[in-house]
């Protein structure tokens, strides 16, 4: 069944390229590696938006509609032994979220709501080697899946040696206009 869904997705991408047209609606509900492969398309398509991370939480707010199916070019700030920072999105985004990065930077996630800050569990971490072995791509070097909750979902990028990273944030299950 997954092979049929993958064939359908590839066919749609070949005949209806880009995510901006609304000629066909399909539901993306695939294996994590197929989702990472989908995110790699957005990583390379060049339609990024620029954002400067902040050194304190929550960081700049990213409107969920503005980041959907887009690469985010994040400028990290000097922090301790490298560059790091915070960005956040929400408040009404819930469910499993995939965050893909073109660097091997470590990430953590916090939810900020009226009840206070709460660390969220990263359900799955994908390493550069796993991604390269499964997808044969170097566009994405690290990825995580976590369950976003109502309120601000804050992504912390731990200090790294890269000052600019490229990020794609995708819902794990979403409807996709092709």
Write the layout of secondary structure elements.
Layout: H1 2-15, E1 25-28, H2 32-44, E2 49-52, E3 61-62, H3 64-67, E4 71-75, E5 77-79, E6 82-89, E7 95-101, E8 107-113, E9 116-120, E10 122-126, H4 128-135, E11 142-148, E12 152-160, E13 164-171, E14 174-177
Parallel strand pairs: 2-4, 3-6
Antiparallel strand pairs: 1-14, 4-13, 5-6, 6-12, 7-11, 7-13, 8-9, 8-12, 10-11
What does this structure look like?
With 178 residues, this protein is an alpha+beta fold. The protein has one domain: Jelly Rolls. The chain is 22% helix and 44% strand. The chain is built from 4 helices and 14 strands. The protein has helices at 2-15, 32-44, 64-67, 128-135, and strands at residues 25-28, 49-52, 61-62, 71-75, 77-79, 82-89, 95-101, 107-113, 116-120, 122-126, 142-148, 152-160, 164-171, 174-177. The model is unreliable at 1-29 and 174-178 (pLDDT under 50).
């Amino acid at each position: 069944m997954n092979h049929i869904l993958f064939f359908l997705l590839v066919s749609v991408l070949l005949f209806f390229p880009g995510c901006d047209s609304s000629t066909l609606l399909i539901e993306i509900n695939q294996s994590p590696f197929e989702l990472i492969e989908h995110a790699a398309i957005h990583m390379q398509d060049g339609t990024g938006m620029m954002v400067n991370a902040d050194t304190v939480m929550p960081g700049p707010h990213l409107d969920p509609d503005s980041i959907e199916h887009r690469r985010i070019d994040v400028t990290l700030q000097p922090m301790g032994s490298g560059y790091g920072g915070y960005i956040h999105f929400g408040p009404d985004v819930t469910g499993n979220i995939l965050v893909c990065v073109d660097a091997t930077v470590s990430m953590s996630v916090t939810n900020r709501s009226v009840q206070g800050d709460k660390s969220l569990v990263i359900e799955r971490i994908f390493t550069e080697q796993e991604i390269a072995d499964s997808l044969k791509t170097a566009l994405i070097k690290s990825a995580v899946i976590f369950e976003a909750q109502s309120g601000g979902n804050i992504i912390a990028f731990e200090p790294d040696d890269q000052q600019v990273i490229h990020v794609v944030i995708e819902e794990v299950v979403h409807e996709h206009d092709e």
